[in-house]
Each structure stands twice: as structure tokens, then as C-alpha cells.
């Protein structure tokens, strides 16, 4: 299962076998069932996750207990409540399985050790962070410029497989529309 | 003027005089007047900017020529059309002065030289990228969970100085509301 991680990292930086052994030693494997939580609101966030298989939702729950989907993460994505992780403050988001999910887990201290011990990994995380920022910026532009129908069509174009896998109620909570509105938009 | 850059970087990583001289050598200084463009849509994006003084707006112009503000950047902020900069594709955003503005400019090749030549700078850019991502994520959560009035109040709380400096029409284009709606919200 660590092969997937190596393949993923090597899209950005090549690693020798020795270097990858060093990287791999800092991850631990976990498996979760659908509906299980990796992070619950209020938790101390121990890990930053690399998704090997399955699907996760990162959720913000508002004062009225309504759930808003901040992001989805499937194979090859990294996910966590990153603010809580980096600052070691209680989680304000929850991370929950939409499907049975396998992840590799990275402790904050091990993330730091990887960056300190192997500059290639710092380069890797820098590239991921830069493109993570650009993805979030693209979503902001989509909110500024598009209505619900257009946002749905953009998502359909960008992530067709996500739309196949995710229940309509969760898509609505990601797009910021009601379930009824989404039903009118999607065939 | 490079002192501001040093102070800013040293909030994250300490530098020796020799290291800072190396960093500083990779930046060039430019001054722009209000309404001048640093980047125009369609341009090749040469630089990534550190704002020394003044205020910039990063703008997405839609098919109907309506302007949407993706972000503002003032003192101590980094700004560019980062997608176009990293991928060296034509700019889809424009970057324009809201006030007279002084910047330090960093070429992509110099950004890479800094990261390659001094691991502390790669650490610095990684931290900035991580927190840039978190800022964008916070704005997404704000869009998902808040109405225009609440988004205005959040901005007032987070960036009171921005609200003082930015004309109401630009604030409206940042919050995604009409100028008339904003007038009803703000005293």
C-alpha cells in the first residue's frame, strides 16, 4: 500500500529506495468503515491523512447543527483539519468516511522530521500546498461568479467521478444549496 | 526597504546577514501609482510580489465584464496570479493598485533558486503556502455558512483597516453583493 504513496510523491520529486524507506517509516496505516470519524470537532488533531482508497468528507457544523461540506477527499488526496493540526488547537471541523476508507497517517512531529530530514519532502509539501491554495482560490472564484446551477456544472466537469460517488444530500451541502434545488439542477 | 522583507521572513525563519544578503539579491524593487496594473489578463506573469506599502486588488473579470475581487493585498502580503506564475500560462486574473504601491518582485526562476539554495526559504514559503490555504478555506467556510450581512461583519472583525481603506464598490465586489446591498449593511 505504500507503493501508492511513492508513486504519488514521485509525480513531484524522485526518490531513491533509501529515501523512500525513510519517508515510509514515518507513516502508519489505518482502515475505517463508512460513517466512522477520523476527526471529531473538539478533538486534538494528531494526524494529516493521505487517502489510499475510499472517500472522506471534511465538515463544518454551524450553530443550528447544519452540516456544510468544506471538501471531499478521495484516492491520492491529503486531508485533515489543517488549522487544528498545524496549530495544535481543538478541531473546528470533523472528518468522516463517506465510504470505507484506507489512509496513511502522518503525525505533526513526523511531518516536521520529514521536512527537516529530506529537503525533497519539503519541496513536495510546498508544491502540494501551493496547488491546494490554487484549488481553494478557484472555488472562491466559482462562488463569486457563478450561481448554483453553474457551480454544479463546473463540479460535474472537474470531478465527474465525485458526482457518481457522493449522495445528492452531500453534494448539496458542498455546493451550498438545498437538496431540493440540487434535484432541479441534476437529471 | 529590504528591512521589511527581512523582518517579515524572520517571523518564520531566522536568517544570518549572509543568508539575508543572498535572499535580498533575488528581489527587485518597483513602485506603482494608483490604478496601474502589475498584471493584466492575458499577460505572462513574470513576478510574485511582496507588498512593502500600499494596497492591491486581484480581480477576476467575467464574460459580462463584471469585476470580482479574488483578494486584496496590503503591507506584508504576497500576491500574484499564482496559477499563471507557477505554470507560466497566460494570466486569467489582473492585479491592480488601489493605492500607490511599493513592491519587491520575485521572478519564478529566482523563487526556485531561493528554495534550492537555502532550505530555510523553502520552509518559509511552505509556511506561507499552508497559511494561505487556510485563509482561503476560511473564506470558503464563510461563503457556505454566512449571508452577506454576516460576511461583512466577519470582514469588519478580521480586517478593520481594510474596510477603512477600500472603496465600498470594491468591498461589494469582494463580498459578492451589490453596492446597494452593501450600503444597507454598513453604517
**Total DSSP helices of chain A:** 9
What distance separates the N and C termini of chain A?
Answer: 37 Å
- What is the overall pLDDT average of chain A? 94
Name of the CATH homologous superfamily of one domain in chain A: Jelly Rolls
**Strand-pairing-aware structural class of chain A:** alpha+beta
Rg of chain A over CA atoms, rounded to whole Å, is 17 Å
Q: What sort of overall outline of chain A do the alpha carbons produce when their principal axes are compared? A: globular
Please give the most extensive interface between any two protein chains, plus how many residues each contributes. A-B, 28 and 28 residues
Indicate the low-confidence ranges of chain A by residue numbers.
Answer: none
* CATH A-level architecture of one domain in chain A: Sandwich
Oligomer: homodimer
Q: What's the CATH first level of one domain in chain A?
A: Mainly Beta
- Give the fraction of residues assigned to helices of chain A: 40-55%
